Amino acid sequence: MFHLGWFVGNGYSVQSWNRDWAGTDNEDWYSPALYSDAARALERAAFDFMVFQDGLMVPDIFGGSMEADLKFAQEIPRSDPTAMVAILSQVTKNLGYIPTISTSFYPPFMAARMLTTLDQLSSGHAGGNLVTSASDRAAQNFGFDNHHAHDLRYEMAEEWADLVTQLWDSWEPGSVIMDTEKHVFADYTKVHPIEFEGRFYSSRGPLNTPPGPQGRPVISQAGGSPAGREFGARFADVIFCVPNGLDSMRAYREDIHRRMEKYGREPGECKILFMVDPVIGETDQVARDIASARAEAKRSDAYVEEHLSVMSYFSGIDFAAFDLDQPMPDLDGKVNAQQSTMARYQKDAAGKTLRELVIEHNMVATIDLVGSPATVAAKMGEVMEEVGGDGFLLSGPLNRKNIAEITDGLVPELKRLGLTRPRYTKPTLRENLREF
Ligand SMILES: Cc1cc2nc3c(=O)[nH]c(=O)nc-3n(C[C@H](O)[C@H](O)[C@H](O)COP(=O)(O)O)c2cc1C
Hints:
Elements lengths: L2 E6 L16 H4 L4 H12 L4 E4 L14 H5 L9 H8 L7 E7 L5 H14 L5 E5 L4 H6 L8 H19 L7 E4 L4 E3 L9 E2 L4 E2 L14 E4 L4 H10 L2 E4 L3 H18 L8 E6 L2 E2 L3 H14 L3 H15 L23 H10 L5 H7 L9 E2 L1 H15 L3 E4 L5 H17 L12 H6 L2
Parallel strand pairs: 1-2, 1-14, 2-3, 3-4, 4-9, 9-10, 10-11, 11-14, 12-13
Antiparallel strand pairs: 5-6, 7-8
């Protein structure tokens, strides 16, 4: 069997306000209604978790202005996903929730406390998607002139995660005794200051709240550069990745497993999920027609402009300055933002003009999945057989139609084939992830 996660790629934001199947998104996008409907459906389909993207700035790289980003709602709005997750955790019992947390900008003590609080509220179903953040604008919101250099961010992240882990461990198991006869809540001999003094961070500890049901909330990670992979191999319970095609998927997985060995970790301790965006139709032909219509829609000037603004955000480089009818310039060594994301574009750029690249590049899928529920389910099974792998991160648009196609169309087929869990049997998110 393999695992399923759902990636809310826009974070807590507008979702389909200007697209098909928007529902009431343009009236009540900030209400929890859409997310709680999605959470119930994902739980019915026995998904492991829902993960929320997040960012901490308004981008203005494209054309040197916020205009395109505000127009396209690109990286904005971003309301705080930790608050949303607290609400959603009251709607379901078994689904996991993973908000994105920036190691560069959240003080470790605050993050440790917040994730423990979410773990308590969700009865052991919380995690944090640890990112280092990629933009100077985010850094400037926190008082820095510019963001730290790429690899330094990951060195800081390692220390940050080390410190947060020590805070989570600062209450020994059994420290809360709640002895009503003797009037003792916690045994003071089992709660310890950590006296952490690092290169970048220090904290005395202990944490001022005891661990939730998981002790350490689940950690997920998505950085694909060598430094990002090293960080994931050391700390993550689950890694999300977008390698292109079967060979790259297999290689990515083997690389993470090799890196995990160094830290004395078994492959089963970290699940590697591949991003996909299935296009489902009643029949294979219907699905192919939908996929063609979507590909055609990408030829519009508006789509090209929007995608260029996204690439500007990913790279920190203004793509308005490049000629659309020339190849994408070689950016190797020039990206201080999301390096592996831009390396993926660079690889895909061979033999294409920038315009062709923008129209054809799929940001969120490792393989094409187009067909009826039965066809796509069978293909997902074959891919897992062939590359190994622990499952998929579904990354399509968050609207009720798309959710239903996956949870009530595709997943019943996956279950019928015995590929995903029929129902939950474990009490926490981490135990669900370790189930197979
Ligand atoms: C599935 C997925 C989710 C991600 N979510 C976020 C996010 O919420 N916020 C963010 O700043 N970066 C996010 N990223 C970007 C990664 O954290 C990372 O910066 C990017 O993959 C490039 O990695 P690298 O700098 O190690 O090459 C995400 C990436 C992927 C593949």
